[in-house]
Amino acid sequence: MTDILFQPYTLNPTLTLKNRILMAPLTRCMADADLVPTQAMTEYYGRRAEAGLIISEATIIRADGQGYPNTPGLFTPEQIAGWRKVTNTVHANGGKMFAQLWHTGRVAHPHFYHGEHVLAPSAEAVEGSVPRMRELTYQVPKPVTKQEIEQLVADYAQAAANAIDAGFDGVEIHGANGYLIDQFLHHDSNKRTDQYGGSPENMARFALEVVDAVIDRIGNDRTALRVSPGAYFNMAADDRDRNVFDYLLPALEQRNLAFLHVGIFDDAMEFEYLGGRASSYIRSVYHNTLVGVGSYTAETGSEAITANKFDLLAIGRPFIANPDYVAKVKSKAPLVAYSDEMLTSLV
Ligand code: FNR
Ligand code: 8K6
């Protein structure tokens, strides 16, 4: 009953995927001290080239976007060269790969980049501390100025160009999970009173500026976006957020992106202010290619695609546990169960 997953899927005239299974972006914190992808990462991604599309672990666009140890970057020649080895291997094995472009905003920590400030829409700190580095508590961010916003937008576009230079087939802008772009989209983190805050149009402005700058640089056929209309990670919910996404999603539809991707850990979660699941809400206001994700199996994901709830299925944790996930599903072989201890090594 998983046959639908093995149908090719045409995103646009530039890109056709050989099947409907995506490897979800998965932060592994295994880049070297200069945030360059390693040989072990090259082999890890190379083993997963049977996916219709691999989305890289979140990759920072510049130094002050870093919020976790050893997350890779795409802003130095060495990082670009490291990623080129990864994409060459994935392509040699018959796969396709997008880079996920990331700035953590208020979830960044100056410890990692020896900086002074953490940049975010408003001076609203996220509670707690960096996971597994409990001595690093989160700081009150410095609200970004108009000039800093312009630089950030330019840096996303440059990182997208760097991704193409590194051989990626496209980029997924990380607009989800409470990081910088998402921080503009939610009232919990955006208290601005200028043209980037207050109204839905203003709160969506930064996201759309980044999307448009990336499209200008590499084309809409190679540009995708991940969004979390449901606040669930690094973020507190606010009923008014719904209006922001009611404005943003139709505006995105007009941009003809390669795809839109839901950012969620478990798509069974229901959000009252969205009238149900994040994926159902997005489907109701956005009519182009949608990638579903979040605690699906090949079976439940196939059912959701067949029921037209989304078009493509991203798989995260099961892909950590099973490098040969696609072959196993195809041959109906049993899967290895994921456990958090698997995060300590790259298999
Ligand atoms: C994630 N997730 C994630 N999401 C994202 O947009 N960028 C990222 O870098 C990461 N990193 C990450 C690391 C780890 C260890 C986990 C478990 C998750 C979320 C991920 O892409 C996916 O949405 C969830 O894992 C839900 O899908 P599964 O795992 O239930 O198939
Ligand atoms: C992108 C970055 C960092 C990685 C964090 C990954 C954490 C992995 C834990 C997986 C367990 C899922 C729990 C769901 C969290 C939702 C909270 C309400």
Automatic annotation (TrEMBL):
Q: Which InterPro entries match?
A: Aldolase_TIM (IPR013785), OxRdtase_FMN_N (IPR001155), Oye-like (IPR045247)
Q: Which Gene3D superfamilies match?
A: Aldolase class I (3.20.20.70)
Domain of life per record: Bacteria
One Pfam family cited in the UniProt record for this chain: Oxidored_FMN
Which residues belong to any copy of the NADH:flavin oxidoreductase/NADH oxidase N-terminal domain?
5-334
SUPFAM superfamilies in the cross-refs:
FMN-linked oxidoreductases
Query: What is the name attached to this protein's record?
Result: Alkene reductase
User: Mind giving the lineage of the organism this protein is from?
Assistant: Bacteria, Pseudomonadati, Pseudomonadota, Gammaproteobacteria, Alteromonadales
